[in-house]
Amino acid sequence: MRQGALAAGLALALLGAAPAHLTAQETLADLRQELQVLKVELMRLNRELVTTGGPSAGLAGSSLPERVALIERELRRLTAKTEELQHRIERIVADGTNRIGDIEFRLCELDPKCDISTLGQTRPLGGAQIAPAPVSPPAAPPPSGASELAVGERADFDRALAAHEAGEHARAAELFAAFLETYPGSPLATEALLWRGQALEAEGRSAEAARAYLEAFSSAPEGPEADEALYRLGLMLDELGQREEACVTLGEVVRRFPDTEAAGEAEAARARMACQ
């Protein structure tokens, strides 16, 4: 009876832990998950190897040590692939952060009110430093109230937006700046930066508007406002006489956010600018 149960367990192990064939579409999370599954399977098979004391007559032809060795090889392959993808991500983040830092410096040079010595270190693209992370189970979901707004937060945002829509652009820019200072890390922060940029743009303060758009994009490069923020940044760079940088930025809108309204507008703007 015990031998039959063990044979069934081994059959499931052999079927369930077949080597995975990675594709170009697999993400780092996929690899980590698969790595975790294989590690668990390896631990289970190792325990079974110790407790059974060797194959029984009912398991003739099955080779548990070979199966363990196969899983170990697969673990090594997946670990190497994970590290490779991690390094690629770090290079992309570093390159994007350097480009954003360069644009920030250029914009500061164009703004008489900007003090270059106060710029500080550019925040990494995406808002957080990428670092190798150990394989772990999926993170628990955030608490249900994690994204709730503070008391008065929505009202302050709506007040600034109403001022902008009423044509009081200078006041709107001040209100949005006060909002961002009062509610750091707000779920509405990126949207507030985008609207502040539009208010500054309406006031003819192109350099300040460009900095607001850049901050809006770099704070959430995959967020819902990212395409419009990057598109408007490209327009402001052209307004400031930075045609080459404007063309590159608008090209990034098309590359990053295809099939969006912002991408279509960016294509039209590039045509007007005769971008190469």
From TrEMBL:
One of its GO terms (biological process) is FtsZ-dependent cytokinesis. The lineage of its organism: Bacteria, Pseudomonadati, Pseudomonadota, Alphaproteobacteria, Rhodobacterales. The keyword RNA-binding does not apply. Residues 1-24 form the signal peptide. Residues 127-149 are annotated as: Disordered. It is found in: Periplasm. Pfam families: TPR_16 (PF13432), TPR_6 (PF13174). It comes from Meinhardsimonia xiamenensis. Residues 21-95 form a coiled coil. SUPFAM superfamilies: TPR-like (SSF48452). Keywords: Cell cycle, Cell division, Coiled coil, Periplasm, Signal. Belongs to the CpoB family. Residues 134-144 have a biased composition (Pro residues). Mediates coordination of peptidoglycan synthesis and outer membrane constriction during cell division. The keyword Protein transport does not apply. This is Cell division coordinator CpoB. InterPro entries: CpoB, CpoB_C, TPR-like_helical_dom_sf, TPR_rpt. GO terms for cellular component: outer membrane-bounded periplasmic space. It comes from the Bacteria.
